[in-house]
Amino acid sequence: MAKYVVKRICYMLLTLFTVASITFFLMRSIPGDPLASMAKTLPEQTKENFYAKYGLDQPLYKQYFKYMEGLVHLDLGESILYAGRSVTSEIARTSPVSGMVGGTALIIGTFIGVCLGMVAALKKNRWPDYVVMFIAILGATIPVFVLASLMQYVFAVQLGWLPASGWGKPVHMVLPVIVLGFGSVATYARYIKSSMLDTLGQDYVLTARAKGLSERAVILKHVLRNSLLPAVTIFSSSIVGVFTGAFVTEKMFSIPGIGLYYVSSINNNDYTMVMGTTVFYAALFIIMQLVVDFVYMILDPRIRIASDR
C-alpha cells in the first residue's frame, strides 16, 4: 500500500509539472500580452517598468524557470489583471463560493439521480422508468443558460419567489443549485439504471435470492453497492466540474466564484491567474482520482492493488 501511494504521488507531481508546462507555453503563444491594451496610453518608461515588474521583458525560458521555481515553493505569483492580489489569495477567496454552490448542487443532484436510477431499473419498461428517462433526456439536452433563463423568468420575474441574481444570502443559492443539480440528476439516473440492470443479472444476485434474502437486502447490500462503481468514477470529475464548469451559471446569477474569474482571466491574457487556476484544477482532479481508487476498494473487495511484476 505504501509503495502504491508513493508511486501515485510521483505520478501526480509529474502530471502537475506537465500541465503547468503546457499551459505556460500555450498562454505565451497567444498573440498579445496582458499589458498590451493598457500600455498603449502609458509613457515608454512606465511601460518598461510594468513589463519588468512582471518579468515580461525577459526571454521566454527565463520566465518559464522563474515560474516553475515559484511553483515549487507554492507561490503562484501575482495577478496581472487584479494588481496587488496574489493568485493564491484569489483562489482562496473565490473557490469556496463555487464549492458552496456547486457542492450543494452535486450532493443533492447525485442523491436524487441515484434514487431515480434505482426506480428506473427496478421498474423497467413501466411508467416510472419512462418518466425518469424523460427527465434524464431533458437534463442532458437542455443547455445550462436556457434552463437558468427559464428559472429566472418563472421564479423571479413571474412568481417573485426568489431573487434573479446576486450573492450573500442563502436564498441566492436556490436557483443556481437547481440549475447545476439538474444535470447531475440526469447523469446519475442514467448511469445507475444501466449499472443496476447489468448487476441484477449477475450470478451472486441470483444466489442471494435463492438463499432467501429479502428483496430489500438484495438490492441494498448486493445490487446497489456494486452498481455505484460507475457513479464513483464520474463523481471525481463531477467535483472538478463544480469549480470549472459552472462559469455560465456564475455569470448569469452574478455569483463571484472561481469559474467567473477564470474566464475573465483568459479573456484578458492574465498569465499568472490562468496558470494558477489551471494548476489548481489539475491538482484537484488528480487528488480526486486517487480518492476514487480507495473508494473502489471499499465498495468492491475484489479490487486489490497488485504489485508490479
**Residue ranges: pLDDT <50 for 5 or more in a row?**
305-309
Number of strands: 0
Distance between the termini: 15 Å
What structural class results from the helix and strand content? mainly alpha
Helix content: over 70%
CATH class of the domain at 94-270: Mainly Alpha
Supply Rg: 24 Å
H-E string? HHHHHHHHHHHHH
Share in β-strands: under 5%
If classified by CATH, what would the architecture of the domain at 94-270 be? Orthogonal Bundle
**Average pLDDT figure:** 79
**Form type:** flat
Structure description:
The protein has 309 residues and is mostly helical. It has a domain at 94-270: MetI-like (MetI-like fold, Orthogonal Bundle). 75% of the residues lie in helices and 0% in strands. It contains 13 helices and no strands. Helix 1 runs antiparallel to helix 13 (271-299) and helix 6 crosses helix 8 (174-200). 29% of the residues are buried.
Short description:
With 309 residues, this protein is mainly alpha-helical. It contains 13 helices and no strands. It is a multi-pass membrane protein.
Which key features would you list for this structure?
single chain; 309 residues; mainly alpha; MetI-like fold; disordered C terminus
Indicate the topology.
Layout: H1 2-29, H2 36-39, H3 44-53, H4 60-72, H5 87-122, H6 127-141, H7 144-158, H8 174-200, H9 203-210, H10 215-244, H11 247-252, H12 258-267, H13 271-299
Helix pairs in contact: 1-13, 5-6, 5-8, 5-10, 6-8, 7-8, 8-10, 9-10, 10-13, 12-13
